[in-house]
Amino acid sequence: MMTLTEIERTLRALRLSGIAATLNTRVMEAQATQQPFLETLSAMLQDELDRRRSRLTEKRFKQSRLDERLTLADFDWRFNPKLPRQACFELHTLKFLADGGNALIIGKPGTGKSHVAKAVAYHATLQGFDVRYVEADTEFARFAVSSPQEQAELLRTYTAPDLLVLDDLFLARRIPEAAGELLQTVVHQRYKHRRSIVVTSNRVVQDWGRYLGDQTMATTILDRLMHRAAMLEFDGKSYRLREAAARLTTAPSAA
Predict the structure, then answer these.
(1) By residue range, what is the domain housing residue 21?
(2) What are phi and psi of 68, to 5 degrees?
(3) Which residues in the chain land under pLDDT 70?
(4) Rounded to two decimals, what is the model's pTM?
């Protein structure tokens, strides 16, 4: 018969680290309560499942490239009561992913568009979806100066996930020609394979042709983006300006 130490070593060799981590606790618990063997075994197997799920969730979060774990519960809906709250929570159900649908979140700076997009993306990682979050203009500028091999790899990164979030599209008004072609390719490929995109932008869609420098390209992109899409319009005051004003108010005055 193996000792407890040998059992732990064997469990780790079998990559059952969840059971190994709680083995001592479960053994003492079983001895103290005279717990039936099957009940103890069930608890140990649940420990293993919990550990694996936690690791997978953390892996999906890291792969998503999200920089924070936001939720809709964190959002201050009272500050801008006219925001499309119901539409945001409907997006949060993730039903649009099953349909290969998209979402365009358009509106003024600082009104919470990125928060909602990140909250939906984070929730999708928790539900087992493969997600990629990118700051659109920064990522497209990076693509424009990459080598052909790097561009091919980046294109796979943008087209393969279940959900792609393009945050702050056209923040810099114009994007490089190569980036415009990339956007068109990504939208086309994801539309063809029914993979969802969430776009946030300060720019109304009627002006996208000007920011792309090509009205035909803009029409092609919007035709596919909006075919199966929810359009959420954000209007109101800026959360960032409110926070900046609060900091100024509470800052100690100079002597």
Answers:
(1) 1-37
(2) -160, 155
(3) 240-255
(4) 0.81
